[in-house]
# Entry
Amino acid sequence: MTPVATTFFFYFLAALSVGSALGVILRKNAVHSAIFLIFTLLSQAGLYLMLYAPFVAGVQIILYAGGIMVLFLFVIMLVNLERSLKEEQFNRQWLVGTIVALLFGGLMLAVYRNGAASFPRALAVLPETSNTQDIGIALYRNYMLPFEVASLLLLVAIVGAVVMAKKRI
Amino acid sequence: MAEIGTMHYLVVAAMLFILGVVGVVTRRNVVIILMSIELILNAVNLNLVAFSRLYGLHGQVFSIFVIVDAAAEAAVGLGIVIAFFRNKETVNVDEVDLLKW
# Structure
Protein backbone atom coordinates (compact mmCIF):
# COMPACT_ATOMS: atom_id res chain seq x y z
CA MET A 1 0.00 0.00 0.00
CA THR A 2 1.51 3.32 -1.01
CA PRO A 3 0.36 6.36 0.94
CA VAL A 4 -0.93 9.34 -0.98
CA ALA A 5 1.14 12.46 -1.50
CA THR A 6 4.25 10.91 0.06
CA THR A 7 6.51 13.01 -2.11
CA PHE A 8 4.85 16.25 -1.14
CA PHE A 9 4.96 15.47 2.57
CA PHE A 10 8.58 14.40 2.40
CA TYR A 11 9.72 17.60 0.73
CA PHE A 12 7.54 19.71 2.99
CA LEU A 13 8.91 18.13 6.18
CA ALA A 14 12.48 18.13 4.90
CA ALA A 15 12.29 21.81 3.97
CA LEU A 16 10.69 22.63 7.32
CA SER A 17 13.35 20.80 9.30
CA VAL A 18 16.31 22.18 7.35
CA GLY A 19 14.91 25.71 7.33
CA SER A 20 14.24 25.60 11.06
CA ALA A 21 17.74 24.23 11.64
CA LEU A 22 19.07 27.27 9.79
CA GLY A 23 16.98 29.41 12.12
CA VAL A 24 18.49 27.63 15.12
CA ILE A 25 22.04 28.52 14.18
CA LEU A 26 21.38 32.01 12.81
CA ARG A 27 19.02 33.67 15.27
CA LYS A 28 20.44 36.08 17.79
CA ASN A 29 17.99 35.37 20.57
CA ALA A 30 18.38 31.97 22.23
CA VAL A 31 14.63 31.67 22.80
CA HIS A 32 14.00 32.00 19.06
CA SER A 33 16.62 29.30 18.46
CA ALA A 34 14.81 27.02 20.91
CA ILE A 35 11.46 27.58 19.16
CA PHE A 36 13.07 26.81 15.78
CA LEU A 37 14.62 23.68 17.27
CA ILE A 38 11.16 22.54 18.38
CA PHE A 39 9.96 22.92 14.79
CA THR A 40 12.91 20.87 13.55
CA LEU A 41 12.21 18.13 16.07
CA LEU A 42 8.50 17.97 15.22
CA SER A 43 9.12 17.78 11.48
CA GLN A 44 11.66 15.05 12.12
CA ALA A 45 8.98 13.16 14.03
CA GLY A 46 6.90 13.44 10.84
CA LEU A 47 9.79 12.00 8.84
CA TYR A 48 10.01 9.09 11.30
CA LEU A 49 6.32 8.45 10.75
CA MET A 50 6.95 8.37 7.00
CA LEU A 51 9.67 5.78 7.62
CA TYR A 52 7.16 3.55 9.45
CA ALA A 53 8.74 4.16 12.87
CA PRO A 54 5.78 5.38 14.93
CA PHE A 55 7.35 4.52 18.29
CA VAL A 56 10.48 6.55 17.61
CA ALA A 57 8.29 9.41 16.40
CA GLY A 58 6.34 9.35 19.66
CA VAL A 59 9.51 9.19 21.74
CA GLN A 60 10.87 12.09 19.71
CA ILE A 61 7.86 14.27 20.44
CA ILE A 62 7.47 13.34 24.10
CA LEU A 63 11.13 13.27 25.09
CA TYR A 64 12.70 15.88 22.83
CA ALA A 65 10.00 18.40 22.12
CA GLY A 66 8.41 17.86 25.52
CA GLY A 67 11.26 17.16 27.89
CA ILE A 68 14.62 18.35 26.63
CA MET A 69 13.29 21.57 25.14
CA VAL A 70 11.63 22.51 28.43
CA LEU A 71 15.02 22.00 30.07
CA PHE A 72 16.63 24.24 27.46
CA LEU A 73 14.03 26.97 27.91
CA PHE A 74 14.45 26.86 31.67
CA VAL A 75 18.20 27.28 31.37
CA ILE A 76 17.79 30.11 28.85
CA MET A 77 15.47 31.78 31.36
CA LEU A 78 18.03 31.31 34.14
CA VAL A 79 21.06 32.57 32.24
CA ASN A 80 19.43 35.06 29.89
CA LEU A 81 21.45 38.23 29.67
CA GLU A 82 20.46 41.51 28.11
CA ARG A 83 24.15 41.93 27.51
CA SER A 84 24.55 38.82 25.37
CA LEU A 85 22.04 40.11 22.83
CA LYS A 86 24.19 43.12 22.12
CA GLU A 87 27.40 41.14 21.80
CA GLU A 88 28.94 39.57 18.75
CA GLN A 89 27.15 36.24 18.20
CA PHE A 90 29.73 34.47 16.06
CA ASN A 91 33.32 33.46 16.64
CA ARG A 92 36.20 35.04 14.80
CA GLN A 93 36.84 31.77 12.97
CA TRP A 94 33.27 31.42 11.68
CA LEU A 95 34.24 31.60 8.02
CA VAL A 96 36.89 28.88 8.24
CA GLY A 97 34.58 26.71 10.33
CA THR A 98 31.72 27.04 7.87
CA ILE A 99 33.95 26.23 4.90
CA VAL A 100 35.39 23.15 6.58
CA ALA A 101 31.92 21.96 7.59
CA LEU A 102 30.64 22.40 4.03
CA LEU A 103 33.64 20.49 2.68
CA PHE A 104 32.80 17.69 5.09
CA GLY A 105 29.22 17.78 3.82
CA GLY A 106 30.48 17.46 0.27
CA LEU A 107 32.54 14.45 1.34
CA MET A 108 29.45 12.86 2.89
CA LEU A 109 27.43 13.41 -0.27
CA ALA A 110 30.21 11.93 -2.40
CA VAL A 111 30.32 8.85 -0.18
CA TYR A 112 26.55 8.49 -0.39
CA ARG A 113 26.57 8.81 -4.15
CA ASN A 114 29.26 6.17 -4.59
CA GLY A 115 27.86 3.85 -1.95
CA ALA A 116 24.21 3.97 -2.94
CA ALA A 117 24.62 0.94 -5.19
CA SER A 118 25.39 -1.26 -2.20
CA PHE A 119 22.05 -0.61 -0.51
CA PRO A 120 19.68 -3.58 -0.56
CA ARG A 121 17.00 -3.31 -3.22
CA ALA A 122 14.18 -4.65 -1.12
CA LEU A 123 12.80 -2.95 1.96
CA ALA A 124 12.78 -4.82 5.25
CA VAL A 125 9.44 -6.17 6.40
CA LEU A 126 8.43 -3.94 9.30
CA PRO A 127 4.83 -4.43 10.38
CA GLU A 128 3.78 -1.02 11.61
CA THR A 129 0.88 -2.28 13.69
CA SER A 130 3.24 -4.12 16.07
CA ASN A 131 6.12 -1.64 15.91
CA THR A 132 6.06 -0.73 19.61
CA GLN A 133 5.74 -4.35 20.61
CA ASP A 134 8.66 -5.36 18.40
CA ILE A 135 10.88 -2.62 19.79
CA GLY A 136 9.97 -3.65 23.33
CA ILE A 137 10.81 -7.27 22.61
CA ALA A 138 14.12 -6.26 21.02
CA LEU A 139 14.97 -3.99 23.95
CA TYR A 140 14.31 -6.63 26.59
CA ARG A 141 15.83 -9.57 24.75
CA ASN A 142 18.72 -8.73 22.43
CA TYR A 143 19.50 -5.34 23.93
CA MET A 144 19.07 -6.18 27.61
CA LEU A 145 22.60 -5.21 28.67
CA PRO A 146 22.68 -1.90 26.71
CA PHE A 147 19.28 -1.09 28.20
CA GLU A 148 20.59 -1.52 31.73
CA VAL A 149 23.71 0.46 30.91
CA ALA A 150 21.47 3.25 29.58
CA SER A 151 19.56 3.29 32.87
CA LEU A 152 22.86 3.55 34.74
CA LEU A 153 23.89 6.42 32.43
CA LEU A 154 20.67 8.26 33.23
CA LEU A 155 21.26 7.78 36.96
CA VAL A 156 24.76 9.20 36.63
CA ALA A 157 23.40 12.11 34.57
CA ILE A 158 20.78 12.90 37.22
CA VAL A 159 23.37 12.90 40.01
CA GLY A 160 25.77 14.92 37.88
CA ALA A 161 23.18 17.53 36.95
CA VAL A 162 22.13 17.96 40.58
CA VAL A 163 25.73 18.30 41.73
CA MET A 164 26.54 20.80 38.97
CA ALA A 165 23.52 22.98 39.63
CA LYS A 166 23.87 22.99 43.44
CA LYS A 167 24.97 26.24 44.97
CA ARG A 168 27.36 24.69 47.44
CA ILE A 169 28.63 21.15 47.28
CA MET B 1 8.70 13.44 -9.10
CA ALA B 2 10.94 10.58 -8.21
CA GLU B 3 10.13 7.95 -5.64
CA ILE B 4 11.34 8.90 -2.17
CA GLY B 5 14.10 6.46 -1.25
CA THR B 6 16.63 6.03 1.50
CA MET B 7 19.01 8.42 -0.25
CA HIS B 8 16.60 11.34 0.17
CA TYR B 9 16.51 10.82 3.92
CA LEU B 10 20.30 10.48 4.06
CA VAL B 11 20.72 13.79 2.24
CA VAL B 12 18.32 15.56 4.63
CA ALA B 13 20.21 14.05 7.58
CA ALA B 14 23.53 15.18 6.11
CA MET B 15 22.22 18.72 5.74
CA LEU B 16 21.02 18.76 9.35
CA PHE B 17 24.35 17.35 10.50
CA ILE B 18 26.31 20.02 8.65
CA LEU B 19 24.08 22.77 10.03
CA GLY B 20 24.67 21.39 13.51
CA VAL B 21 28.44 21.34 12.97
CA VAL B 22 28.36 24.91 11.67
CA GLY B 23 26.39 25.94 14.75
CA VAL B 24 28.89 24.27 17.07
CA VAL B 25 31.97 25.84 15.49
CA THR B 26 30.62 29.33 14.84
CA ARG B 27 28.33 30.33 17.70
CA ARG B 28 29.54 31.88 20.94
CA ASN B 29 26.49 31.29 23.12
CA VAL B 30 26.97 27.94 24.84
CA VAL B 31 23.23 27.21 25.05
CA ILE B 32 22.93 27.49 21.28
CA ILE B 33 25.98 25.25 20.93
CA LEU B 34 24.19 22.61 23.01
CA MET B 35 21.13 23.00 20.75
CA SER B 36 23.37 22.46 17.72
CA ILE B 37 24.64 19.26 19.32
CA GLU B 38 21.01 18.17 19.59
CA LEU B 39 20.69 18.88 15.86
CA ILE B 40 23.69 16.64 15.16
CA LEU B 41 22.26 13.82 17.28
CA ASN B 42 18.94 14.17 15.48
CA ALA B 43 20.63 13.88 12.11
CA VAL B 44 22.25 10.65 13.29
CA ASN B 45 18.87 9.40 14.47
CA LEU B 46 17.34 10.14 11.09
CA ASN B 47 20.11 8.13 9.43
CA LEU B 48 19.54 5.20 11.80
CA VAL B 49 15.79 5.15 11.26
CA ALA B 50 16.21 5.50 7.48
CA PHE B 51 18.53 2.50 7.44
CA SER B 52 16.20 0.54 9.69
CA ARG B 53 13.76 0.73 6.80
CA LEU B 54 16.27 -1.38 4.85
CA TYR B 55 17.87 -3.60 7.45
CA GLY B 56 15.26 -4.27 10.09
CA LEU B 57 14.35 -2.95 13.50
CA HIS B 58 17.81 -2.54 15.05
CA GLY B 59 18.26 1.00 13.81
CA GLN B 60 15.14 2.15 15.62
CA VAL B 61 16.26 0.50 18.86
CA PHE B 62 19.64 2.16 18.55
CA SER B 63 18.06 5.54 17.87
CA ILE B 64 16.25 5.22 21.20
CA PHE B 65 19.60 4.74 22.89
CA VAL B 66 20.85 7.85 21.10
CA ILE B 67 17.85 9.80 22.43
CA VAL B 68 18.67 8.59 25.96
CA ASP B 69 22.24 9.79 25.51
CA ALA B 70 20.99 13.13 24.23
CA ALA B 71 18.82 13.58 27.30
CA ALA B 72 21.71 12.77 29.65
CA GLU B 73 24.04 15.06 27.71
CA ALA B 74 21.56 17.94 27.77
CA ALA B 75 20.99 17.59 31.52
CA VAL B 76 24.69 17.51 32.43
CA GLY B 77 25.65 20.16 29.86
CA LEU B 78 23.01 22.61 31.03
CA GLY B 79 24.01 21.93 34.64
CA ILE B 80 27.57 22.90 33.73
CA VAL B 81 26.25 26.04 31.99
CA ILE B 82 24.38 27.07 35.14
CA ALA B 83 27.38 26.38 37.36
CA PHE B 84 29.61 28.36 35.05
CA PHE B 85 27.20 31.25 34.73
CA ARG B 86 27.05 31.52 38.50
CA ASN B 87 30.82 31.98 38.66
CA LYS B 88 31.64 34.09 35.60
CA GLU B 89 28.37 35.82 34.62
CA THR B 90 28.82 34.89 30.98
CA VAL B 91 27.61 32.24 28.55
CA ASN B 92 30.18 32.85 25.81
CA VAL B 93 32.47 29.94 25.15
CA ASP B 94 35.48 32.04 24.23
CA GLU B 95 35.44 33.59 27.69
CA VAL B 96 35.60 30.13 29.26
CA ASP B 97 39.34 29.94 29.90
CA LEU B 98 39.60 28.73 33.48
CA LEU B 99 41.88 25.87 32.47
CA LYS B 100 44.20 28.10 30.41
CA TRP B 101 47.20 29.71 32.00
In short: The first helix of chain B runs from residue 6 to 26. The mean pLDDT of chain B is 89.
